[in-house]
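REQUEST FORM: STRUCTURE PREDICTION
Request ID: SP-0412
Submitted by: Lab K.M.
Chain count: 1
Length (residues): 467
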Amino acid sequence: MNTSLKSTVLGAVMASLLAGCAVGTPYQRPDVAMPAQWDGVVAAKASGSAAKDVADSATATADWWRQFGSAELDQLMERALAANHDLAAATIRIRQARASAGITDAGRLPTADLSASGTRSHSNQAGGSTSEQSQLGVSIAYEVDLWGGKAAQSQAANARVDANTYDRDAVALVLQADVAANYFQALALNDRLAIARKNLEAARSVLSLVEVRYNKGATTGLEVAQQRTSVLNIEAQIPQLEQELRAKQTALAVLLGQAPQGFSIQGNSLAGMHLPAVATEQPASLLERRPDIKRAESRLVAANADINAARAALYPHVRLSASAVASGIVTGGSNVVGSLLASLTQSLFDGGRLRGQVDLSQAQRDELVEQYLQSVLVSLKEVQDSLHAVTTAQARQGLLTDAASEAKEAFRIANVRYQAGSQDLLTLLDSQRTQLQAEDSRVQAELARYTATINLYKSLGGGWKSA
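STATUS: Completed
RESULT:
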């Protein structure tokens, strides 16, 4: 081997040995001041059971909605996760990110090309001859990742795959919460419709009584008109509730990825549903549990890698190439010529483009740091608000349940006294309205507990169960 070739090979080997000289800085998570614990305690209780505090020690559960104990909700959730178009689009974005990462990763590998050519020529002159020439060549090229720029590009691309994966998880979590919320809202509307229809029957019974008394001359036409007004007002609530129920069912259909026409649910009441106690972890667990926070952090990882790649571009590029060409293969007189080349390229002047790319990447990273910190604060707020909502909704439901019982008894007494002639109609009408409002408020308070529980699951990044 001649001296020139030895020097070339030696230079190539040295460049390869220096390939680990990366100029970037490793990613570090931004400092976040997380509270040690949540304010207050989740005084959650299952339907029909005594209240209990939930311990902080808990384990994660992905299918948190199963803790409500509704087979129909389980089926609806499975259909939504399988057919929802927003979720499918988010999944496709993961495929796109993976394909992009694959393209980037390919840039770290050598490239190899194969070429072949052949010619045949014939002379028409006297004693003309025919000649044939053939060549087969192979070339290999490799850019040495001396400063870690290509590794940084690969890291950024793969971090964006993670970001898209967490984005898909965030879409799934919102979808799960929306399906559960719409389902329980539909059940509550069925309960409210049942209450309105029951009260309509009671109001019509009172109207019949008033009309009998009027025909006997025991009351006036004013009382008849007043009770008819009460009947019509109660009756007018039913179409509105039916419309709201239909809207919830059509919303569910869209979440399930199907046309709303003809869609309906089988469940017709919150009665029999199980309201689970929700366990919580310490606030710091949100950094690993919330998909939106993990998505923001993955984008930060990618941005940090972009900075490293931009810095590496400031340094010389080392490229190795080798080729071999064999000629005369067809004729049997083969001749092989090989070459090995190492080249180094350094930008001398680019108008500040490369340095500007570093500055741009740093500014983009700084923006993502602020977005990450904001997402953490929002998550803390959402969990704390949900914890308070669970506690408040539980207390409110208890009070309104008692109020509904008292209102029912008050209406019964007023009705008896009116029939006995010792109570005026206005008192009866007032107690009738109060009963309807109290029973309707009780159902809405019960729904509020389910809604608060769903929001707590969502804000925690999914489900937890006691360990």
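NOTES: Residues 54 and 247 are 35 Å apart (CA to CA).
Reviewed by: T.R.
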